[in-house]
Structure formats: structure tokens, C-alpha cells
Design a protein that fits this description.
The protein has two domains: 53 residues, no CATH class; 170 residues, Up-down Bundle (Methane Monooxygenase Hydroxylase, Chain G, domain 1), CATH 1.20.58. Helix content is 70%, strand content 0%. It binds fe (ii) ion (2 copies).
Length: 244
């Protein structure tokens, strides 16, 4: 596919090298992926042509990346679980611990900011843990069953929630809420510029929160812009006359 400035952020981000460039410029490809690059870049005072150029250079430097728009959905689900869900399960408890340490030691320096971060992070963590559970137990197995049925030329099996659009809508709402929490954390952390009182633990906390933000943006993008539309399409293509 030839990309241009009218290409949507989600299409561009299908290559993860491109997603990294969009992330560096703060261009929201995860929840606002339908917007054309031109519009989103101009809004941020960026030259869309220059961003596109950067994207093509980044892609040329990493030509071996997987295109998840073409891979079997079961493999995409496995990738999301192994890469992004495992990352969260491993890092959320450690981040809570590190944040609690920083709050305890430095509260007197900036109580409003640190307590605000603590509150926002606790809400984000609780939401994400419930969210992943719902994806792993309910939604992903249904998508895998849909794909298996489609590969055998069978109609998609009926699901308790009527159509897959229902749980997907809930997941997308939760993604928007998580993205808002990340934005709030970034604001509270001063754009992740280190405060002058930052000790080593604070530096590590700032770095790991920024890494969490990057990882979660990519994770949300893979679900919102690739997995969910492809699963919806599968349901649309294989139900029709077969479903009672
Ligand atoms: Fe997920
Ligand atoms: Fe999700």
C-alpha cells in the first residue's frame, strides 16, 4: 500500500516502526486512528510530509516486521497475550510498588502531584486487570472460534451476547478510559521531564510509566484498529443465512 498524507493514522500504524514515529510525535493512532495523518499532524503544528518521510525511513530500517492485518487472528491474539498482556501482568504490580515508594519518600516535595498520580494509576491498574480478564476469558476465545468456523467454511457459532459488536463496544470504551488515564498521568508527571528532586527510584518510575504509555498505545491500536474490525468483518461475512 502506498501511504500518503491522507492515509489514516491506524493504517500507517499497521507497521510498528510507523507506530513508533507517530508515538514520538504524540499523534493518537490508538483511539483516534481513523483520522488522516494530514489533519492530525497539522493540528499539532507538524508538517505531515515530514512525518511521512520519517515513517518511510523508519519502515525501511525495519523491513522484517509482521503485518498483523494479514496474519491469522489466532496468531494476533497470541501476540497480544504474550507481548502486551504479559507485559502488563508483570509490570503493573511492580509499578504500583515503585510509585508507592516515591510517594512515601517525596510526598512533602509535591503532595498534590504524587497523590494524584497514585490515584490515577490505581484506577488504571484496576481497570486494566479486569479488562484483560474479559478479553482473555470472553472475547478472544469467541474470535478464535469465529476464525476456526470460517476456515472450515462453517457459519460463526452463536454467542450469548448476540453479536460480537456488544463486547467490542465495551472494550473500546475501556480503551478510551485507559488512554485518558495515561494522558492524565503524563500531565501530572510534567510530560515525564524529571523534577529536580528526582532520586534513582523516581527516575526509574518516570521511565517505566512512559514505557507503559508506549506499550499500551500499541496494544490498544492492535485491538481497536486491527483485531476488532477483522473479527466484526468475520461475523458479518459468515453469519447471514446460516444463523437462526
Ligand atoms: Fe488487550
Ligand atoms: Fe483491550
Amino acid at each position: 500500500m502506498t501511504s500518503g498524507v491522507r492515509t489514516s493514522l491506524a493504517e500507517l500504524a499497521a507497521a510498528s516502526a510507523a507506530a513508533r514515529v507517530l508515538e514520538q510525535h504524540g499523534l493518537d493512532y490508538w483511539c483516534q486512528g481513523g483520522r488522516p495523518l494530514e489533519e492530525a499532524a497539522r493540528e499539532k503544528g507538524l508538517d505531515p510530509g515530514a512525518v511521512l518521510q520519517e515513517i518511510s525511513e523508519a519502515q525501511a530500517a525495519s523491513a522484517d516486521e509482521r503485518d498483523w492485518r494479514e496474519a491469522p487472528l489466532s496468531q494476533l491474539i497470541e501476540h497480544i497475550r504474550k507481548t502486551h498482556h504479559e507485559y502488563l501482568k508483570r509490570n503493573l504490580p511492580a509499578l504500583s510498588q515503585r510509585l508507592a515508594e516515591v510517594v512515601e519518600v517525596h510526598r512533602a516535595r509535591d503532595a498534590a502531584r504524587l497523590e494524584g498520580m497514585s490515584e490515577v494509576f490505581a484506577g488504571l491498574r484496576a481497570e486494566l486487570e479486569g479488562h484483560m480478564q474479559k478479553e482473555e476469558v470472553i472475547l478472544f476465545p469467541v474470535i478464535a472460534r469465529y476464525e476456526q468456523a470460517a476456515s472450515q467454511g462453517l457459519p460463526v457459532p452463536p454467542v450469548a451476547f448476540g453479536t460480537i459488536a456488544n463486547p467490542i463496544r465495551v472494550m473500546e470504551r475501556e480503551h478510551s478510559s485507559a488512554a485518558e488515564a495515561l494522558k492524565r498521568l503524563r500531565e501530572l508527571a510534567g510530560g515525564y521531564c524529571l523534577p529536580d528532586w528526582a532520586c534513582e527510584t523516581t527516575q526509574a518510575l518516570w521511565r517505566s510509566l512512559e514505557e507503559l504509555e508506549r506499550d499500551l498505545h500499541l496494544h490498544i491500536h492492535l485491538e481497536n484498529n486491527i483485531l476488532f474490525p477483522r473479527a466484526t468483518d468475520l461475523e458479518g461475512r459468515t453469519c447471514g443465512p446460516f444463523r437462526g
